[in-house]
TrEMBL record:
A GO molecular-function descriptor: pyrroline-5-carboxylate reductase activity
Full protein name: Pyrroline-5-carboxylate reductase
EC supergroup of this enzyme: oxidoreductase
Species, as recorded: Paralabilibaculum antarcticum
Record field: catalytic activity: L-proline + NADP(+) = (S)-1-pyrroline-5-carboxylate + NADPH + 2 H(+); L-proline + NAD(+) = (S)-1-pyrroline-5-carboxylate + NADH + 2 H(+)
Length: 265
């Protein structure tokens, strides 16, 4: 990947996060990153970090091999029409970050001549902790590995079948909001039982981080770790049972399914 040149078309919040992830990656040369945005003053920090910045999308494409299109879904066709004359068959790989646009639609815009990928990061890309799901069309293993490398620079990435992308969006992208709402509720509970807001927030944030790290490191089912802290007649099991009596797990599952049904439409 050291010799691959990557252009990020449309460096808003998400595009900028990906560019920063690449610039921070020691296995990637910063001079191989080109970032575009109409207002260059908003991405000056990327230039200071070693990237080339430009407002000319066609120029960026002509100087790169992998094209990340990081614009809103309704702008994708406009961008593709703009950069199409600069694309060279056999040289360019296209990656779309637009929600709801399938690889078949994007490939059709490109006359089926290019490998096309669809990637779905989440807002934790801003701190290099995103989970990104990726699927591709007209692509081979080497091209897939190159695209995965890019998104591994902002967290963890998974290659999945495209029919699962909507489900992945709900769990990985919408899921961030679900977890944050859970954290907010824990903080509110902590305040009610006597802790000040600052202390409760610090405790809850670290508790959630520690719980996630336990599962990541030990690769165990959540119930395995839960069993370690639920002693007979103890306060933990009483609290868990009260939450379940009030529909804690079922309401979360219903929320996930409702979001999925909405995104499927």
């Amino acid at each position: 990947m050291k010799n691959e040149k990557i252009s990020v078309i449309g460096c808003g919040n998400l595009g900028k996060s990906i560019a920063k992830g690449l610039l921070d990656d020691k296995d990637f040369s910063s001079e191989n990153v080109i970032a575009t945005r109409r207002n260059l003053s908003l991405i000056k920090d990327l230039e200071e970090a070693g990237a080339e910045i430009t407002s000319d999308n066609c120029y960026a494409v002509s100087k790169s091999n992998i094209i990340l299109i990081a614009v809103k879904p309704y702008n994708v066709s406009k961008i593709i029409k703009e950069i199409k004359p600069a694309l060279i068959e056999g040289e360019h790989i296209i990656v779309s970050l637009a929600t709801g646009l399938g690889t078949a639609e994007i490939s059709e815009m490109l006359d089926g001549k290019f490998p096309v990928f669809r990637a779905m990061p989440n807002i934790a890309a801003n701190i290099g902790e995103s989970v990104t799901c990726i699927c591709g069309k007209n692509s081979d293993q080497e091209q897939t590995a190159k695209v995965k490398f890019i998104f591994d620079s902002i967290g963890e990435s998974l290659i999945i079948n495209e029919e699962l992308m909507e489900a992945a969006t709900v769990l990985g992208a919408c899921g961030t909001a679900y977890v944050l709402r859970f954290i907010r509720a824990m903080v509110q509970g902590g305040i009610q039982i006597g802790l000040d807001s600052k202390t409760a927030t610090a405790m809850v944030n670290q508790t959630v981080k520690g719980a996630a790290e336990l599962l990541i490191e030990r690769k165990m089912h959540p119930e395995f770790e839960i069993d370690k802290v639920t002693t007979p007649k103890g306060c933990t099991i009483l609290g868990l049972n009260e939450m379940e009596h009030n529909g804690f797990s079922s309401s979360l599952i219903k929320g996930i399914v409702t979001s999925f049904e909405k995104i499927e439409k």
